[in-house]
Amino acid sequence: MLYQQCTRLGISVTFGVNIIEYIENAKDGSATAVASDGTRYTHDIVVAADGLGTKSHKAIMGEIIRAVPTGFVVCRIFYRLDPVKNAELYQKLADQPRADLRAYSGENYHCVLSTANDHVVIGITLPDDGTSSESWSEAITGDEFLKMLPDTADWDPIIIDTIRNIPQNCIVKWQLCWRDPQTKWTTEGGRIVQLGDSAHAFIPSSISGATTALEDAQSFAECLRLAGKADAHLGTKVHELLRIRRASILQRLGFANRREMHRAGGMEALLKHPDTAKSGPMGLGKWIWTHNAESYATERFAEARAHLEIGSPFEHTNLPPGFNWQDGWTMQDEVEKEKQGINTPDLKLNGYWGIY
User: Which cofactor names does the annotation list (predicted)?
Assistant: First the structure.
C-alpha cells in the first residue's frame, strides 16, 4: 500500500539498499546517505527511518550507540489454521462470533493471544535464557516453546491448543533490545532526522511503538509542509520539539506495563493494589489514543518555531494532563525497579491517565 502511494505521487523507491553512513553537509545545506556499495544519496533532508540497527547515531549524537538487551525475549507467531490438519481448533475459532484478543500474565511473563476465524497471533514475553538474538531469523519448535512456558497447567486451554497447532519452525524468538531516550533526533543543522525506532526504541509492552512511529510520520510531513523547502531544516527541529517528550513517556510506559504484568499473581493481583492507575493494567490513557499528531503539528508549529528561534515559552500539551516532566530516566533505572520488585504503576500516577 505504501509503495503504491509512493508510485501514485511520483516518488521513486529503490530496493535492496543498505545505508551505512549519514553525513550532514553544513556548508551547502544538504545531507548525504552513503550506501554499502558506495552510492551517495544527497538531498535537502535525509530521514533515518531504518529501525533499531540504524547507523545514524554517529551523525546525530556524535557516537555509535548500540542497542542493549533488556533481559527479556518475545516469542512471536502468526499462522493460519488448516481446516483439515487443525480441524478441532479450526472449528472452535470458526464458531467465534467475532475476533478475540486475550492477555494473560504472571511472575516474569505475559502472553497476548489474538484469534479471528482461521488466523492466530501469539506473543509471549519471557526472561532471556541467553539463547536468543536480535534477529527475526531464529526459529524454534512448538515443543521447545511449551518447555519455556511457566505453569502451563493453569493456563487457558485455548493458548495451549494454539501453540500445539503451530506449524513446524514458525516461532520466532527475538531478543528485546533497547536504547535509552535521546536528547535529540536531529543533527546540528537539522539536515538529518531520525524517525520511528531509529529515534526511540520501544519494547512491545508499551503497546505504542508502531503508532508512535506513525505519529512521527504525520508530524514530520506536516512540519516540512509548514516550513517550506527553504526552511526544511527548521521543520525537522520543530518536529523534534513537538514529539520528543511524548515519545519518551511512551517508551517508559513499556517498562511500567511490564512491571505491572510480571508481578506475582499477574494483572489480577495488580487490580487489587490501592495505587492502580485509573486506566488499569496495560491501560492506555485517553491522552495517548485521542492525540492527532498532524493537527498538533499544524496548530503548534508557529509557537514551537518561535521557541526555537527567539526562546519564547512553549508548553507541551500532547502529554498526560498535569504530567510533571522528568529528565534523564534510563532503562537501567526501570530494570532495577523490576529487580527490586517495585511493581506499582508509578508512571501512570504522574498526571491524568484515565480513559474518560
Answer: FAD
Q: Are residues 193 and 238 in the same domain?
A: no
pLDDT tens for residues 194-249?
A: 999 999 999 999 999 999 999 999 999 999 999 999 999 999 999 999 999 999 99
Q: The cell 500474565 sits on which residue?
A: 105
Q: What would the grid cell of residue 118 be?
A: 482461521
- Residue 331, judged by CB atoms within 10 A of its CB (0-12, 13-18, 19+), counts as buried
Strand partners, 105: 110
- Active-site residue, from 8, 76, 225, 300: 76
Residues in contact with 218: Cβ distance below 8 Å, sequence separation at least 6, in sequence order = 293, 294, 297
Domain that holds residue 99: 68-177
* Domain shared by 97 and 243, yes or no: no
* 263 annotated active-site: no
Contact 77, 159 (CB under 8 A): no
3 in a structural domain: no
